[in-house]
């Protein structure tokens, strides 16, 4: 497989990133309680690292990994948390940073789980959203770009573990 077309350039991504930082800066303006940014690995590692550098209020960083099981190109619907947060999130404003929302299953499971731990607030910011592909009802609080039903790589996202290092988001041929 090879790159067919650049869908979102590195510059377009950087221009949109500050919207996420701005959103996060406003989350605790009334109570000044701590903020925890959670990245879902591996796909969101670059997104988190760019977004966190536009955040001007103190924040902590956490990581989770989730595995969804696929049959051919369709997700089976089973999502397993393979690495959990280290922190107790009870006294935090939690912001999940995700690379892409496709069926919505991964995030709806993660949100369901984190809500049982009673954070002060829980928000979801995604870099990309593919609303046409939704299987479960799930809406992020902020989506930087909406894209059509295409498989994309780059800026953290992979195909067979390759292409995560591309500075732009591209469609594969
Ligand atoms: P879900 O279907 O919303 O649960 O998405 C599960 C995960 O699949 C996302 O967090 C991504 O890591 C991955 N994924 C979904 N669509 C794409 C894509 O177009 N390219 C690369 N990874 C994707
Ligand atoms: Mg992901």
Reconstruct the topology from this structure.
Elements lengths: L2 E6 L1 H16 L9 E7 L3 H8 L6 E13 L2 E10 L9 E9 L3 H11 L5 E9 L12 E5 L5 E2 L15 E4 L1
Parallel strand pairs: 2-3, 2-5, 5-6, 6-7
Antiparallel strand pairs: 1-9, 3-4, 8-9
Task: Describe what this molecule looks like in 3D.
This protein is α/β, with parallel strands linked by helices and 173 residues long. The protein has helices at residues 10-25, 45-52, 105-115, and strands at residues 3-8, 35-41, 59-71, 74-83, 93-101, 121-129, 142-146, 152-153, 169-172. The strands form two sheets. Strands 4-3-2-5-6-7 form a six-stranded mixed beta sheet, with helices on both faces. Strand 2, helix 2 (45-52) and strand 3 (59-71) form a beta-alpha-beta unit. Helix 1 (10-25) packs across helix 2 (45-52). Residues 40, 43-44, 98-99 line the site of magnesium ion (MG).
Which small-molecule ligands are present, each listed once? inosinic acid, magnesium ion
Helix content: 10-25%
List the secondary-structure elements in sequence, H or E.
EHEHEEEHEEEE
Shape: globular
Distance between the termini: 6 Å
Features:
173 residues, alpha/beta, 3-stranded antiparallel beta sheet, 3 helices, 9 strands, 20% helix, binds inosinic acid, binds magnesium ion
